[in-house]
# Entry
Amino acid sequence: MAVVRCAIDLGIPDILENQDGRPMSLSDLSSNIGCSPSTLHRIMRFLVNRRIFHHHEKSTIDQKSTSSNSNGYVKTALSSLLTKNGDKSMAAFVVLHTSPSMLAPWLGLSKRVLTDCKSHAFEAANGKDIWSYAEANSEHNKLLNDAMACDSRLVVPAVIDGCSELFLGLESVVDVGGGNGTTMRLLVEAFPWIRGIVFDLPHVIAHAKEEYHVGLDYIAGDMFHAIPKADSVFIKWVLHDWGDEECIKILKNCKDAIPKDKGKVIIVEAVISEEDERKSESFEYVKLMLDMVMMAETETGKQRTSKEWEHVLDQAGFSHHTFHSIQAVQSVIVAYP
Ligand SMILES: C[S@@+](CC[C@H](N)C(=O)[O-])C[C@H]1O[C@@H](n2cnc3c(N)ncnc32)[C@H](O)[C@@H]1O
# Structure
């Protein structure tokens, strides 16, 4: 992660993206960045090995031809995701997770195990829980919201492609823990008949309003107290931040926010495979890694198996629910009152 972060800081994904697939030599790349070729070579050798970049070797055919193809570094599909401003850029996600406040809690994992999760790694490292820390540090708040928006740009199109029928006939949707509004913007672009409400903590809504998207409503509040009323609740990557007790409380408030007869709660979260299915599931590594992220960064959060999801949904009083796979790490779980 740190070496990928180094490449982002140096702007290497952007430089190679602008080459339109033409290889760039080490010497051109180092003069573009303004650094020594020998150190850069070691960084690039590692990142080529990890397939973040590709190194084009001039082939025998190329050497005989007059073609301008030469040895050098070329972008890959992965490096395109690391450009600073691309449509699908994940750079902010890497920058957040390589920031000192997000890295420090990882060193508290052993204590967390020894105290059965009663010591809180993020709070021990940073003096506050993750949400209060963001409230007190506006730069970190922006970084966190921008990083979450990276995931939304990847996952929300997968929700739209895989589950568009869920949004037919909905007049209003409230995105609970909706961050900077990217998710709701994408949903309203795809389903323009929906009135989109972005609901989050006051400091997040204050930041979201700076990036104001025309047509969205922004409401500040606390999901543990009440959630604004709408035809449907959308809630992505929020419930995994919380233990069962808090999760049930949030889900009950989601249920209270929607009509009893036709309302639904659309949950977008990873579903960890049961033991016997684990080997065949291609995103399993990412899901299990996200569970470790929850252990390091939150007090009670965790990724859940389908049985664990069923438990919290039943306890919150939903009558039934369905699971839908989409082309993403997350699945869509729809809960009905
Ligand atoms: C992991 S982020 C996910 C953001 C967004 N849903 C996404 O997937 O990109 C969790 C969000 O929950 C919000 N949140 C945390 N506690 C909250 C509370 N008590 N009430 C409302 N939102 C809260 C955070 O501010 C943050 O935006």
